[in-house]
Write the structure tokens for this entry.
Amino acid sequence: MMNMKLLSLPCRYTLSRHLYSSCSVKDILNTQPEGCKKKLKGWAKAMRKMKENIFVDLDDGSTHRRLQVVIPKNKIPASLTYGCSFEAEGVLVRNPNYQLELVAESINVYGSCVVQDGYPFAPRKTYHPEYVRQHLHIRPRTATFSSLLRLRDKLSSAVRNRFAEDNFIEINAPVLSSNDCEGAGEVFAVKPDSENLVKEMISKDHQSPMEAFFNGQTYLTVSGQMHLECMARALTKVYTLGPTFRAENSKSRLHLSEFYMIEAEQAFIDNTEELLSSIEKTTSTVVKQLLEKSSDEIGHYRNIIGASKDNDPVNMVNVPYEVISYQKACDVLEKENCFKNSMIRGKPLAKEHELFLVKYNGQKPIFVVDWPKDLKPFYTKAIPNNKSLVYAVDLLCPNVGELCGGSVREDDYDVLKEKLSFVGLEDKLHWYLELRKFGNVSTAGFGIGFERFLQVLLDVQNIKDTIAFPRWPHNCKM
Amino acid sequence: MMNMKLLSLPCRYTLSRHLYSSCSVKDILNTQPEGCKKKLKGWAKAMRKMKENIFVDLDDGSTHRRLQVVIPKNKIPASLTYGCSFEAEGVLVRNPNYQLELVAESINVYGSCVVQDGYPFAPRKTYHPEYVRQHLHIRPRTATFSSLLRLRDKLSSAVRNRFAEDNFIEINAPVLSSNDCEGAGEVFAVKPDSENLVKEMISKDHQSPMEAFFNGQTYLTVSGQMHLECMARALTKVYTLGPTFRAENSKSRLHLSEFYMIEAEQAFIDNTEELLSSIEKTTSTVVKQLLEKSSDEIGHYRNIIGASKDNDPVNMVNVPYEVISYQKACDVLEKENCFKNSMIRGKPLAKEHELFLVKYNGQKPIFVVDWPKDLKPFYTKAIPNNKSLVYAVDLLCPNVGELCGGSVREDDYDVLKEKLSFVGLEDKLHWYLELRKFGNVSTAGFGIGFERFLQVLLDVQNIKDTIAFPRWPHNCKM
């Protein structure tokens, strides 16, 4: 049986195998195959009519740069209009500006685009991001947003590279979790959509429809931190880059209901210093890599959106970042009278306070450390000589304020047990406590909002313009 | 204001900055710094007592290999037992077997591990995966599962490399979606956990608690395909690697409620041949890269779990894979009488049929193409000369059967409109139809179950042992 041969297989399809990958605009601009005959496929963007020829920019999304296609007038199909998809075959030659262009021998239009028939983006027009956002399914066809998507991809690669080079192991923290974010109430709960399925799965102990499927309330994750702590206690250095969720009725330019977080956790760290080093190593090497590999496209994007020169990504590269204690930060803020909400010592910093501190630091990133314990979650470790303060850190950046939050975690079994009991989570987080019982080590970690990172890097005003399919209160299109 | 200098910053902490990254077991085994003095931190695994010394395997999770630490008897703390966390400082020397080992000058135990006090894994014992799974938070400390986690990380990197090298752009397809999987009912629905928030957000048009937050029912994604189609129509080649969800009451060894999918979509593909090439290029280059970079750990893992030699990952590397049509596959299956469920022509293949076809093909991957249209979703494109068949493909593999499904998508506006109207989704998927209206192109794509890919590669029997935090009916721990 095992060596039986399959005799009756149909022949493989006999079409020729010229995959499209061999001729993207990106490859052509990278390899500069002057004089070669190539076939390209993409969409028509800017068109310029001259006496003898028409010049069409072919955009295939592989790069922000486009390839100019020169089409003799007698070879122009009527359907070749702005926005249409087409194929051009011809020879690559260098034009007087020393740029490669394709002199077309044949043109084949696949799909026309009649702007008057409801296409939301007319040629040579720019639109407000809010208008563009109303057409999510067409938005990637704009120069601005396709550029953003490529840069988002590059940012995500740079993040993964930074961690892989330093022996961090990527963990997929779960989206579904029985952890409700310490009861803060800002979570989404899930249940099967099918009522029949719910009925089928209800049991004596779990009669609520919300509990039937998983034998308990189940939520969308707000953070993978606790799950990563499990992993750091076996693999030493771990990280995740995945979706997290917040059920908040906030429509601010800095919040989404579904957003991505870079979270990292490291064992054998028990002090703020090493935590700060790990955070600034992450942000600085990632931005450095991006500026090296994608400066062209970053410049292109920032140019289109009119990014402020004050918020310069180079500021993220220069380490070490400045450090200020929460108390000192309060001293600074107290002297100012320019705030809508005045600073109250012992309370969280408002967004305007965060942005002021960044400005005060010359628009460079700044760490705020040594927070009052009441401002940080129960699992944050107290500073040994000053029990009212904890080993917690916020990294503040231009445009967004808080980009990153981190802390050393409470690793003392008895102290954590008491804290869990105080917040009423001793039963629910028994597993979390038990991590401290066997082969216990100190761990520290941090979380960086991925979309906010893009906002800092590119000076994007609204977070909804940094993600392919933004979800926010009253909005979950597609 | 802008040039104001922050004069009152506290000095940076003055601790020395020797980050742990410089001395992981992985780095030491890679760089072989014989004769150097090093400090290592990790967990004690196997211990062997000799006359003069004790030999302890130090495991820090950075690699499946461990570093032997030699400790003179007079320097052994009583708390140094199996499972404890400790630090060892000493000189790296080569032992008679030419392996590096650390001759310890000092030992510092951080956290003890008293097996008798409830630690689930005793030294030198192996446990059934089902037992190990009951201790999810401790599971990463077993040799088997920490190895799995590292290989999962490697698989994910290899997948991203394959796509990046071929100019695919990574898109984060949304987890929250208004798309309910064509009404198949196997979806999870979400709502805010807080009843107050729900009340606050309810509106005239959306009075159900399930609709309040997002102005409509919102589900967890079952596939990013349609979202990727948007993107391929601007960026040509896109992919995603992220979580997807299925609310099915299935406890099989091949199903999870939350699982990862590799999904790719390419514009300008209108035939099965190029689709098959893209799929087999993905699986073969990914497995090739893994066998090149991680053969040691793959061998180690397969050895511990007793993987079958019949299911050899090398079979994934050799392309092209065999191809059989659905009809021919039925011919083959019809001749067999060994099935629990006999094959019925025109119906889906059962798991045992899939596995039989793979076996029949010498335990090598095999494509099944040209499916009856009723067996595939409405968006699958019909084969022009035979309207009862569609351009769809399943890739069948050892151990799991279907690893991958793909199709050419219906790109004709009028045909798709009729199909949408037939399934009652014309309103809901208006945006999806409109993709075909402007600059229309053909697209094709596929989805590979990420955990099943691990099952094929490593011969893992149960999918629950391929993911850090498995979720399945009645189980969502932590």
Remarks:
- Residues 1-11, 13-21 of chain B have pLDDT under 50 and may be disordered.
- The CA atoms of residues 8 and 155 of chain B lie 48 Å apart.
